[in-house]
Known about the structure:
The longest helix has 38 residues, at 2-39. The protein is mainly alpha-helical. Helix 3 (68-97) crosses helix 8 and helix 12 runs antiparallel to helix 13. Helices cover 72% and strands 1% of the residues.
Amino acid sequence: MKLKRSKGMENISAYLFLSPWIIGFILFTGGPIIASFLLSSIKWNLLGVPEFVGLENYRYMFSGESDFWNSLKVTILFTVISVSVSVIVSLFLAVLLNFKMKYISLFQFLYFVPAVMPSVVMACVFKLMFNKELGIVNYLLTLLGIDNPPNWLSDSFWIWPTLAIASIFTYSTGQMMLIFSSSLKEVPQELYEACDLDGANFIQRFFYVTLPAISPIILFNTVVATISSFNSSFTLIYPLTGGGPDNATEVLSLSIYKNAFKLFDMGYASALAVILFIIVAVVTAVQFRLSKNWVYYD
C-alpha cells in the first residue's frame, strides 16, 4: 500500500514539474493549432459575425484565382536555398573551429554574434547594405570597376542571392555551428588514426569518416532548419523585401500575414496556416524516411 502511495506521489510530482510546459503548450501551440483548423472553415473579417463556409476557403486556395501556388513555389525555393546554405556554412565554420589554434574561442564568439541578433534587425541591416543607391555592397562593386551594379532588392533574379547571403547570418546558422562543433569533437580519434595509416588525405577523411560519423547531427540540424525556414521566414523576408519584387518572395507565412492583418480574411489565412502545418509535417516525415539511406547510428 505504501509502495503504491509512493509511486502515486512521484507521478503527481512529475506532472507538477511538467505542468508549466504543458500549460504553455496548450495555450501557445496546441490551442492555436486547433483554433486554426476551426477558423479555416469560416469566413470572418474580425468585425462581423463569423459565417460557416465549410471547405470553401480550401477550394478557393487551390483554384487558379488565388496566389497560393505562387506562394508555395516561392516557399519551397526559399527553403531549399536557406537550408542548404545555412547547413553547409555552419558545418564549414564548425570544421574551422575544430582546428587547434590560438584564440579559437574568440573566433567562435565572432561567428556566433550574428545569431544572437534579432532577424528583423539583421534584415534591416541587409536592406541598407544592398540598397542600390546608398548600399556599401554596390559602392564596393563600383570601386572594382562595375559601373552598373545590380538592384539587389528590386530584381526578381538578384533577390535570391541576397536572401541566400542573408540566410547565413540567421540564428539557425549560429546554433547549428555550435552543435556541429560539439559533434565533431565526439568523432572517435581511432578512425582518423586508421585513415592516416592508410594514407588518406583531409578530403577523404572528411567524406568517408567525419560525415558518416556526424550524420545523425546533420539530420537533426537539417530537420530543424527546414521547420525554421518554413515557419520563421517571415521575420527575414518581410522587413527585407516585403514579399517583392512582384510577389517574387511572398512565402506562405507572409501570405498568411497579408490575408489575416491586411485583408482581414481570417478564415482564408487560417486555411493557409493549416496547409503550411501539413506541408511541414509531410516534409519532416519524408526527411526522416529518407534518412535511413544515409544516416549511420553505429
